[in-house]
Every structure is written in structure tokens, then in C-alpha cells.
Amino acid sequence: MSTEVKHEHIVPVHVYVLVFVALEILATATALLAHLDLGAFNAVIAFAIAVTKMLLVVLFFMHARYSERIIHAVCAVAVFWFGIMVVLTESDYLTRWWHTR
Amino acid sequence: MPSHPESAVERSGAAQVAIQFDNAGQQRVAANMGMWVFLSTEVMFFGGLFLSYLVYRHMHLNSFIAGSNDLNFWIGTINTMVLLCSSFTMALAVRSAQVGKNRALVLLLSLTLVLGLVFLGLKFFEYWQHYEAHHIPGPGFVFDFPHLHHLASERGVELFMFLYFVMTGLHALHMLVGVSLITWLIIQARKRAFTPAWHNPVENIGLYWHFVDIVWIYLYPMLYLIDLSKK
Fold first, then answer.
1. How far apart (Å, rounded) are the C-alpha atoms in residues B100 and B192?
2. Which of A6, B120, B164, B179, CA to CA, is 20 to 30 A from A70?
3. Of B65, B34, B40, the residue nearest B156 (C-alpha)
4. Domain map of chain A by residue range?
5. Residue B225 DSSP class
6. Mean of all residue pLDDT scores within chain A
7. From the CB of residue B166, how many other CB atoms can be counted at a distance below 10 Å?
8. What are the residues whose beta carbons fall under 8 Å from the beta carbon of B93, sequence distance 6 or more?
9. CATH code, domain with B184
10. Contact A27 B81 (CB under 8 A)
């Protein structure tokens, strides 16, 4: 019984360079934007940039884009479990004082 | 007479397929998956702290703003850049192992190691600054509100600093583990232990290193950035 595995994908150097430049630009952007008072959007923008940086690292540096489906499944499970923890906990904490408002 | 499998493994990188696997490809994917499963447990490990931060930030917003504004923005920012550079050199190191460029592998791993040590050096310098300022949570904690907000409290800032130290401390501990693993990789690579056919340790320690970088990608905005403009 043999399991299908993909051939190891060799990512061209220029892809790594582009991802690295994008990461440093995003880091600079988030550092600069933090100095402007954008109200609640400071957190939203910072979080959006962090997610983008994470996706670049996971998809290219960690090769998830070229990986087997089993590895995609493990990634999805990690996000899903973390989502359960955050959503269920915050659905308690964020709603505790609603009746007093 | 067949040679002992262990010695065959040491002589030729291409022969390193353990008995339970059909081929080197299957072995590589199994090793990768093991690392990804470990990293997903790490998501929950750090995730618990991220969640505590979210909950307490909501409860003590003004104290968290005061505490966050007291951190060293420049050290946080430079460390972010340094860590991204180290992820880049690590990605190139893994590629060098894949294509069998051993000298490049040793060089890139060494660069990654140096960048990791720069990060840790700056981090501990920052800790020393907190120590000097009596900002370490505990009996000696003092905070005199340079950007005074009437709704912030010393206990609230202490809670912020407590979460800051646990989160960045756990991250720094992971960096120390990563630095040790990379040192081991350099020693092995100098012995030409890795070949295009077998370099699972380089790949998996690379995955670990990138994960630790991702943790910092979130710690940086949470601790240093989102409250910076809210003095």
C-alpha cells in the first residue's frame, strides 16, 4: 500500500525575495500607521496587516502553498480550534455587562 | 553480506528511509506533518495568552494604553525587522539544503543564528530597561504615568506588564530553543549530514523558526502598536 506524496517543490529564489520585501514593507506600514489616531481602526488595520504577514510566511516560507492536503488539514484545524476558544470565551466576556447598559 | 542499516544510513544520505515508510517522500511528509501537528498545539499554547490579553485589555483599556505607551517602540520595531530577516535567511537555508548547496546552507544557517541572537540581545536590553524603571510586576512595581490618564490604575498597568513579560518571555524561550536547534543544524551541516534526498531536520526546524516569527508578528502590534496613538 503506497500513499501518494507530492514531489518536493523547490521555490525559486526570487519568490522568497519578493515575499521578504513585502513582509518588510508591511512591517514598516504597520509601524507608521500606528502613530496616526484612527480610533478603532488602529487595531483593525494592525490585525489585518499581521494576518497578511502570517499568510505570506505560512504559504511561501513554510511551503504550505505547495504542501500535501493533510498539511492543509492540520493548518485548518489549528485555526478552527483557536477560533472556538476565542469566540466562545469572548461571547461570555463581551456580553457580561450588556444588561447594565 | 548486507551491511548494518545504521552504518548504511551514515554513509549515504539517500538511503535514510526508516523501515515503516514506503519511500523517502512518504517519510518526509510524515515528518512534516508531525511538526505541523506540534505547531498547531503551540497555537493553542500561545493562543491562551492572546485570549487573556484580549479579555483583560477590554476590562482595563486605559491601563493597557498607559502600559503599551511605555514600551520601547524602536526596539519592538527593529526586532520585528530582524526576525523577518531571519525568517528569510532560514527559508533560503532550507532551499540550499533542498538543492544540495552545503556551503550556502552553513552560511545561511549561521546568518539566521546571528539574527536570532541580535533579537534576543535587544529583547534582554529592553527587559533591563523595565528592570531599571521598576516595571517588573511584583512587590517593587512602580508606575508614574508619564502619559497620565485618570482612568488608568497602577494595578491595571501591572497586569499589562505581567502579560507582556509572560508573552514575550515565552516567545524568547522559544527563540532560545530555536537558536540551540540551529546551532545543532550548523554542526550537522558542516559534517555534510544533509543531502537533497534527506534534509528533514533542516525543513522541520525551519518550520518551527517561521512559527516563532509568526508569534512575534502578532505580539508586536498587540503590545507595541494598537494603543500607541491613544495617549
1. 10
2. B179
3. B65
4. 7-67, 68-101
5. I
6. 91
7. 14
8. B104, B105, B108, B109, B112, B202, B206
9. 1.20.120.80
10. yes
B79 lies in a domain?
Answer: yes
The ipTM, to two decimals, is: 0.92
Q: B39 lies in a domain?
A: yes
Give the count of domains, chain B: 1
Between B206, B217, B227, which is nearest A53 by CB? B217
| Residues whose CB falls within 8 Å of the CB of residue B22, separated by 6 or more in sequence, listed in order | A1, A2, A3
d(CA B85, CA A24): 8
> Which residue bears the cell 528511509?
B17
Compute the distance between CA of residue B80 and CA of residue B122 in angstroms, rounded to an integer: 11
B40 touches chain A (CB under 8 A): yes
Tell me if A53 and B40 make a contact (CB, 8 A cut-off).
no
What would the pLDDT profile of B48-107 be if each residue is shown by its tens digit?
A: 999 999 999 999 998 999 899 989 999 999 999 999 999 999 999 999 999 999 999 999
Nearest to A43 by CA among B49, B229, B45, B48: B229
Sign of the dihedral through C-alpha B68, B136, B52, B49: positive
Of the candidates B22, B203, B206, which has an alpha carbon nearest to the alpha carbon of residue A5? B22
A50 and B15 Cβ atoms separated by less than 8 Å: no
- From the candidates A30, A57, A62, which should be mutated to test the interface with B, based on the most B CB atoms within 10 A? A62
Tell which of B88, B147, B195, B227 to mutate to test the A interface (max A CBs under 10 Å). Answer: B88
